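Re: your question from the hallway

Yes, I did run it. Sequences:
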Amino acid sequence: METIPFRPYAPGTQPPYDAAAYGSTHKRHPQENLVRLPHTITEISGPRFAPAQFPPIPDLSVVNGKAALGERIIVHGRITDEDGPPIPHTIVEIWQANAAGRYQHPADQHDAPTDPNFLGEGRVYTDADGWYRFTSIKPGAYPWRNHHNAWRPNHIHFSFFGSGFAQRLVTQMYFPGDPLLALDPVFLSIPDEAARIRLVCQLDMNVTEPEWALGYRWDVVLRGREATPMEG
Amino acid sequence: MPSATASQTIGPFWHLIEHPEWADLTRFGAAGLQITLTGSVLDGDGIPVTDAAVELWQSDPSADEHFPAFGRSRTDEAGRFHFKTLKPGPVPGRGNAQQAPHFAIAIFARGLLKGLATRAYFAGEPLNETDPLLCSIEDPARRATLIAISDGAERWHIDIRLQRGPKGETETVFLDI
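Structure:
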């Protein structure tokens, strides 16, 4: 059993709960100070997902043999912790809008077409060296009502578990060269510019397949552990 | 090495990855004392948060092929989440401490740029009096936000207030982990 606590996050690399420019935070961010909890077995351990019980969904671009509309993409990358070792055999949850910028979701009322051949859910596992890979279509930008004429940049949602519950990470991957990034309160909520830029994937011609799909690479880093085990 | 990747909100459309059966941690045939844990997530106006993902992790009983020890519940139109799981026992703390039985709870939602961490303990549990986390919270009203109450039939309930409510209801204790 792993007994080593996780390190605190580096200053400025995580968004705050209270981000004035993102309206939905106003009534949902805690106003009291968080209570510090030195890690115990509950924070240091975490769930394991077996592919037999949680089957992979590695291709979002096809439903019942029919291709989704849009620009086919392959996304891959490596998941490591802050000290460098890869995180093997860990689950990666993926969800996204379709090429028109519409989610297959009853609450999404954006006036853009749904696509019966695009459901928007993926699930993959890293291999023994921490690499993940899936096929999808490039999601479209879409409007939201945070402020006048607000549009989210193209993005794919990700969920990671790592090896302990305190390593849990839910985030979004963005695409290079997107002019909406400079206007997006969600992206801009992260104080550290280098940390923001690391949410943007890179075109990867080594993974791009001729006559088939553009490849993108996006590496993910989960919290590292302290140098020493818990006392006791 | 670079620092850990930044968090972003789960957004309002995370249900694309929702599988409602995940809220039943007993579905793979787990053996033990079955309980339910329900509650509502409320914002600073006391309005139900209807688009949250509430996650539960427990370090006891240990996860195995029959018991994932992890669950996820959506909140419904009344902000309610609902889990079915096994009742945890005490687990070791740091040093020689013992921790009272508890769940780790994580809340993800639109408007939360990163997940909120809290815990749910069980009212009437003698070990609550010596639990290191509970003992570190001096204000009894705040401490009480971490303690689920039962109807006597292993149906446990705990509400989660993201901020102080409109009638002065106490904000849930959230944890810096």
